[in-house]
Amino acid sequence: MDNRGTSNIPSWVRLVIDHNPFFLLSAICMMSGCTVLNIALYTPAGNIRNLLVLLGVVNIYEAAMIGLGAILLRRSAAERRDAHTLMGLEAVFLADSTFVAGVISTIDARWGWMLDGVLLVLSLVKVVIIARALHLPRANRIILLVALQLLVVLLTPTVFKQIAMQHRGFLPELVIYLAWWVAGLLPVIAAALLWPGRSGDSATPVRASLVLAGIYLIVPFLSVLMHVYGAGWVYNFYLASPEISPVLLGVAVALSALRAHRPRLQILNWQVGLIFAAVLCALYGDVTPGKTRVRTSISFEFLGLHITAIRLTLLGASLVILHMLWLRHRLYALVAAGTCIVGAVLWPNLPAIWTLATRILCEVGNLLARLIPTTAAQWGVTSVVAAFVLLGIGAAYSLRTRPILPAPECEPDSRPSDTPTSPALSSPRSSDDQ
């Protein structure tokens, strides 16, 4: 085949031919248009009719993407790649990343409840069609996880609006904090459903199917985080660092499901880092300077108990560490989990931690001061006791079973000798030499 005609094609033209960026540009235009229209149509009174029209247009666009992707999946390899691009972009619109449904729920809770039911049914239909068309691994479990995350996405603004209506437009800070714990629970459920070795399929899935399955799990989760943050922002609440802790703990548990694909030591390092970050975020909330309606120190009463963000985070960290203990059977994990549980009981907040740490250091200092000898007689007794202790340690070291090391072999001396060789010891000369 003569390639002389294609060798002069510019690189940007070749990029367009090979990767077809128009689908991505189309999705960007739709996202931009929905964002601008949300800002223009959002008012306290709300223009529900226009927002419903916009929501219908978005769903028609999604149907066109799914239909076109299903058609392209039946064609050549290059067109199947375009179909994968379309299906991946559909995950963004499926998770209400345009916030159209969330805006409607924020304006009117009654419309929000009705739309949540309708959109949840439509989303389930879309997910089932996509999962079957792409032959996603563990399709039923992925459908269940996506549906659960979409349920949280759709219900968050509606529930917030309903609770705010009962409190004269004010949303209690505890509701937002508990919503972040619900978001942090989603990765734990995903790890339980997608645990390695629980699938009955012996065939290895295609790499494209694995990538798209990851997209349909990660994108809705990110949408959950955005909707929880956005719903709190509507009621003038800004993100507080203790709210990040449950999400970090949930991700730490979800990383255990990757042990069949990543080195276990690397996963362990990531989990330990996320646990430390979660505890630090909870502690940072007690020292952050306050702003207007920023939750710098989250606390509430439950069944007569004083619950704080640090206590909940330490209890959550202990559960994550016990999960790691179940996987790796290491004693240090049990010690770390016990430390977190004790800390959750004794440390309600950062001042209490500082007070307890100061008291422990003072007691240790006083004990060491009493143990140090001060007179000659005390120094003599200490020396005699140390002699017996060291004698016992030496005996235990000598009597224990130790490997017998072989004696080092002497290497032959390669240096030239100054002593002349004796004729009797020298090799006899041959008869020819004589």
Describe this entry's structure for a reader.
With 434 residues, the chain is an all-alpha fold. It has two domains: 9-196 and 206-237, no CATH class; 242-369, no CATH class. The chain contains 15 helices and two strands. The protein has helices spanning 11-19, 22-41, 48-72, 77-94, 100-107, 109-134, 139-166, 173-193, 207-234, 244-254, 264-284, 309-328, 331-346, 350-371, 376-399; strands spanning 299-302, 305-308. It has a two-stranded antiparallel sheet with strand order 1-2. Strand 1 and strand 2 form a beta hairpin. Helix 4 (77-94) packs parallel to helix 9. The termini are far apart.
User: Largest sheet at a glance?
Assistant: 2 strands, antiparallel
- Beta strand count: 2
The helical percent reads 55-70%
- Estimate the mean pLDDT confidence: 77
C-alpha termini separation:
86 Å
Q: Unreliable stretches, pLDDT < 50, 5 or more residues?
A: 1-5, 287-296, 422-434
Structural category is mainly alpha
Q: Report the β-strand fraction as a percent range.
A: under 5%
The side-by-side strand order for the widest beta sheet comes to 1-2
Number of domains: 2
The helix/strand order is HHHHHHHHHHHEEHHHH
Number of helices: 15
Computed over alpha carbons, the radius of gyration is 35 Å
Shape estimate:
elongated
Short synopsis of the structure:
The protein is an all-alpha fold and about 425 residues long. Helix content is about 70%, strand content about 0%.
Can you give keywords for this protein?
mainly alpha; 68% helix; elongated; disordered N terminus; disordered C terminus
